[in-house]
Amino acid sequence: MSNANLSQTNNTVGLEYVGILGSILFSIVTTVPCCVFLFINGTMLFTLKSKTVFRETSRYILLFNLLFADTVQMALSQLLFMLAVCRISLTYPLCGVPTMLISLTSQISPLTLVVMSLERCVAECYPLRHSTIITIRNTEMAIIVVWVFNSLNVLIQVILLLDFPFENLERLQMKDFCAIENMLLGRMSDDYDKAFTSFLFVSASVVNTSSYIGVIIAARSASTDKASALKARNTLLLHLVQLGFSLSSTIHNPLLKAISKFLDKILLVHIQVVLYVCFIISPRCLSSLIYGIRDQTIRPILLNNLGCQRRRSRSFSTKAKISMHVTS
After folding, report:
1. Stretch 17-22: mean pLDDT, rounded?
2. Of 4-8, 167-171, 184-188, 298-302, the least confident
3. How far apart are CA 3 and CA 20, in angstroms?
4. Which of 127, 166, 208, 243 sits between 20 and 30 A of 29, alpha carbons compared?
5. The pLDDT value given to residue 303
6. Which of 177, 143, 180 is nearest to 5 (CA)?
């Protein structure tokens, strides 16, 4: 995933052909939606920490973990994108830190979706055992396993990177912009990254699809709550859609390379920015919109938190008008 879901975030094909005005325009086009999505994600994270019911429910704990990883990835991806737009190159060690963090958080999302799908499957297929299987402790252990597993993957990437003969380089300053594809210096690193990405997405797809089929079978059972099963089925379907968005982002670089043969550099840059916003930035906010709007428990609290600044400003304005009226 790091070679796909991340490299496209910072791929800067043709940016050298854009002037200062173009760089400013691209910065605004990407930064504005990113800031909006970061605000939504931040509000959602605050919402999930504001109530005891969210902190003590497994699916909300998993949702918090998913949103946290997506938010960190979005912020770091935008940072590297801005560095590329501003034509700022880093040293290999300095570039390695954010790219490895992005690699880590990008892999957290599909595995967290897997755990969330299994939680919904257990809730519908084994309702009587759900409270004993899906406990707060087990949920926290699952999250720890997800982070440790992905941390080991990043550690392997670092080890493979250290195997590269840096002493043969004239200097550690990168010639290209900071991007994960520019950090995969050896063939072994590139092959490992592709293999791990394929394994991760195939495994996640199989588990999510199996959970979806299990819920459909459970929904046909006479002892199952039809409304609850239908809601769980829709939730799992949305998990598959989210996984599909993550998977679609992996074709970003190959797609850019393919169309670059038929388009001029300036048009290619415009298309690249559009794809970046649609496939990299937007999916990172998808979880907040899905769960914030669909979940009846989260929705009123989230909408209240999103609108609190406006209400406060209106309240302040009203008080100021009353004060002026009394003074006059």
Report:
1. 61
2. 4-8
3. 29
4. 243
5. 83
6. 180
